[in-house]
Amino acid sequence: MKALTANRLTDGEVVFWTGADWSERFIQAAVFEESDVAEGAEAHAKSQFTLVVDPYLIEVAPVGGGLAPVSYRERVRAMGPTNKPDHGKQAVGGDDIAVLAGAHGAARSKGRVDLIRRK
Amino acid sequence: MYRYDDIDREMLADRVAEFRDQCGRRLAGEMTEDQFKPLRLMNGLYLQLHAYMLRIAIPYGSLNAAQLRKLAQVSRTYDRGYGHFTTRTNLQLHWIKLKDAPDILDELAGVGLHAIQTSGNCIRNLTADPHAGATADEVDDPRIWAEAIRQWSTFHPEFSFLPRKFKIAVTASPKDRGAIRVYDIGLRLHRDDEGALNFEVLVGGGLGRLPHLGPVIRERLPVRHLLSYLQAILRVYNRHGRRDNIHKARIKILVASLGATEFARQVEEEWSLTDKEAVDLPATELARIRAGFAPAGFETLPPLSATFESARAADPALARFARRNVLPHKHPGYALVNISLKSIGETPGDCSAEQMDVVADLAERYSMNEARVTYEQNLLLPHVKLDDVPAVHAALVDAGLATANIALISDIIACPGLDYCALANARAIPIAQDIARRFADPALAETVGELKIKISGCINACGHHHVGHIGILGVDKKGEEFYQLSLGGSAEDDAALGQVLGPALSADRVAPAIDQLVEVYLRERREGERFIDTFRRAGLAPFKEAVYAQAH
Predict the structure, then answer these.
(1) Can you give the residue range of the structural domain that contains A95?
(2) Would the ipTM clear 0.90, i.e. be above it?
(3) How far is B482 from A105, CA to CA, in rounded Å?
(4) Looking at chain B, which residue has its C-alpha nearest residue A73?
(5) Structural domains of chain B, with CATH
């Protein structure tokens, strides 16, 4: 399963594609079962260059109580920095943040790999 | 302190106006991200994990009170009320909005600050000995020369598109407080037998994926030829540096592949063809810059202060602070006061806006309007009267800035790591916090003595892990955070690259492993030995055995 993420152009905020719009909350992300559908959404996102920067697909998987990104890096993006719990999306709290905070599992993030490739 | 002149101010104003226009065009969709990204990077604006990050240059780590107050105000107004001082003596703000960036640069320009050449393949912000102008062992103020290089290198058309970024550090003392051996160019001022000022020129140091200590390519360069000689080095690099492979593009790779002798020969050949008069700094301009750093208003004071001595005899906390953080000054009756940004459990290098304001006030009132940033991610007041140290200490205590741990095990360098940085593999900050908490007892930390731990969240080595007495490198093992330890590195006059201890450890095993390493040191050390001395004498084996024995 995949979700589509990017940073918002105006302020850099981490956002997720809902299927119709960009949301700041991971819980509202559209989840793609089919890779061709996911890639179609990614291609569409790349055309939205006045809204978002560097969209890419991330792996997501079921965890206790919901879904979470498999990569640790993507969970940090979806929550906020671990050294400042009052900064980032985690500051707002909520059940979806609790699900992310409790998630385990590991994978490389395509976001970092792409970044290094482009450097 | 050197003040920007009309030319500098006009240049900054033009630059802000240009960037404002570029941001406007990007937001309006008139530019793609691929077109815009190099432009924003040239103005220090990165896109990190959670937001844009603005890297503000602090040339040679020197700040006056107005500049520090402006950094505080910008942090408060446009960010989350804090900033992060880096190993390059810059300040990074982690929560910046693109739409605010031109206003921020406009505000910074008002006090002569900017983010120019804090990114990109150009000559980056200069660093210098943070004790400049205050230490007895310097032969000149290295900031004079750093400022000359800053003026020469800013927007230098020939060196704006080098094969890779380029960093220069300047010191003027036998003791290296600028990590000059791990810089692209390290410059050390010294006097020859006739008393003339010369530079020792080191080229090709660097950390990252392929660490190198820079060799000396010229022992005595007459100071008047500094700029023409730098031009010759950069021309050789620009011509032959590897542009085909980003991992081999730094000058360290060129110097290592040619050998220092051949590289030096090519530089000398290039230099011999140079019209030196056309490039070197005219004596009048050097004098103008030197005047900007002229020492001002030191009083004639006795070397001992009764006020200070009685205060520290009465207050154990002040006594400890004086032992760890206060250093002798070249003028009797004055001291350098280090301000640790390594409070136990806090993020190394982070400083709140309120704390910046406090340091600005102290600098203005007690330190001739000067504060410094050190590459070890601390601040420093360079010119404090011994009489005033108790008052400065009291103000620092109130601000949470009086941690007496300079050069101790809890004075840890850590990059922002995976908590903020888009390139990181692993977090660095929580590892530093874990270790610092284990050695929170100041008496224990003092018993352990000088021990420099440096942590990087990826191989780019912003946390200088290769040159830590204990270096810690975050690595990605199938997406999980692991940490590789190395021992025996140093960034100072005894510069060395650390040796890898063994297989990488999981995050929860790092702080216990540091405990084990310290236990071995305390067991093995001989009279007067620091951790690194014991390591150099005893070798890797006892340390390795202690950490990995329990793994089996």
Answers:
(1) 2-118
(2) yes
(3) 14
(4) B418
(5) 6-109 (3.90.480.20), 134-292 (3.30.413.10), 306-398 (3.90.480.20), 417-551 (3.30.413.10)
